[in-house]
Every structure is written in C-alpha cells, then in structure tokens.
Amino acid sequence: MIDFHTHTLLSDGALLPSELARRAEEKGYVFIGITDHVDNSNIEYIIPNIIKACEDINKNWKIKAIPGIEITHMPLESIKSAVKFARSKGIKLIIAHGETLSEPVIKGTNRVAILSGIDILAHPGLVTIEDARLAKDKGVYFEITSRQNHSLTNGHVAKIATLTGVKLVIDTDSHSPGDLITKDFAEKILLAAGLDKKAVKEVFLNSEKLAHRLLAK
C-alpha cells in the first residue's frame, strides 16, 4: 500500500509520526506521506519536525516516509507563496486541501492550488473539467479517498480524471490508526468509484512511480 495523505499529532492526528509509520508498516504499507495541515500560522514549525521524523524513519525502517504538508483552508492569495516556501525548506510532497463538499473550502481553491505547483489535489469535490485539464497540463494528481464524507465525490473525480487523462492516486487522509487500510480495500474503493480493473492497476502504478520520484528529489 502507498498512501500520500496522512496526519499526525503535529496537526490534528492522533499519533506521533513514528507510531503512524510503524502501524502503517504492519498494515503492509511500503510508502507513506506525512502531510500535516499547515497555513501561515504553523508552517515554519511543522516543516522541520516532519522532515526530522521522516529522516529517522527512513534511516531505520523498511517503510519509507515522504515529508509533506497539506495546505489547508488558506487564503487563495497565500497558497503560491506557501508552496514556494515549503519547497525551499526541503518538503518533497505538497498536497492541497481541495473543495470537498463536507467543508466550507473557498471556491477557487482547486484552481489556485493547481496553478501554484502542488503535487496532489486532495478530495477535489465537484472539480470542473476545465480545472482537470489544467491539472493534467501541470502534472497534478487527483486523489480518490477512503475518508468518510470526503469520499462522497469519488465517482465524479474518477469520471473527470478518466475524461481528461488526469492521473489518480488513492489515499486515506488518516487521522487515527483505524483510518489505515489494506491494498485490497483500496482496490474495492477504486472499483466503487467506477474504475475498471485496468484503471485500478494504473492508479497503483501511478502511486508507485510518484513515490519513487518524490523521494528521489
């Protein structure tokens, strides 16, 4: 299992990064993104701590942790500078908290995040075909999620991605141990989103290629 989107007690998760990675490894994970929520209030604190935790995990365990952040509910005008700052400080994976139906995300967040150079647009809600085409051009991946409420639009996201050629990944958006899933369950979620078995294999391949590329940065 490869999962790019998880949270620890550095933001609103329940576990330390090391415990999250350990539990994930026992679940069969080979790569995990540690992507705690940030805005301009905590980004300078979160980044070095995530990087430090991932370095320790990668040095000592088989599972590989990718240091990342999730830009969450930021003013649109601040997103691009936050992405630039995170990259300059060594963050390898940047996720943007997309326009999920379950939260009052500012309209236009999907597009601004795509244009700002993120890697993955999480739970993008009723993402438009125009924004999807832009994401494809920019190399931004869309997320299919196992997280309750955010998963309401998985079918729409899968359909739009199929129509436009946007690459998909599947993530858990884990906040606690019970949120981690097996690869078999991830496959069922992808099938339930309307993808066929060939497309499901492509999602897993997308995740594998992206994980290796991010860690090679």
Q: Which consecutive residue ranges, at least 5 long each, have pLDDT under 50?
A: none
Give the class from helix and strand content and strand pairing.
Answer: alpha/beta
Give a quick account of the main beta sheet: strands, pairing sense, barrel closure. Answer: 7 strands, parallel
The CATH class, by name, is Alpha Beta
- How many distinct domains? 1
Q: Which percent range describes the beta-strand content?
A: 15-25%
Integer average pLDDT: 98
Topology pattern, helix = H, strand = E: EHEHEHEHEHEHEHH
User: Rg, please?
Assistant: 16 Å
By CATH's scheme, which homologous superfamily applies?
Metal-dependent hydrolases
Strand order of the largest sheet: 1-2-3-4-5-6-7
The tally of helices reads 8
Q: What's the N-to-C terminus distance?
A: 21 Å
CATH fold-level name: TIM Barrel
Total beta strands: 7
Helix content: 40-55%
General shape = globular
For this structure, the quaternary state is: single chain
At CATH level 2, the architecture is Alpha-Beta Barrel
What does this structure look like?
The structure is a single chain. This protein is of the alpha/beta class. It has a single domain, classed as Alpha-Beta Barrel (TIM Barrel), CATH 3.20.20. Helix content is 45%, strand content 16%. The protein has helices spanning 17-26, 43-60, 76-88, 109-115, 129-138, 154-164, 183-192, 197-215; strands spanning 2-3, 31-38, 64-71, 93-97, 120-122, 141-145, 168-171. A 7-stranded parallel sheet has the order 1-2-3-4-5-6-7. β5, α5 and β6 form a beta-alpha-beta unit. α4 runs parallel beside α5. It is globular, with a radius of gyration of 16 Å. 48% of the residues are buried. The mean pLDDT is 98.
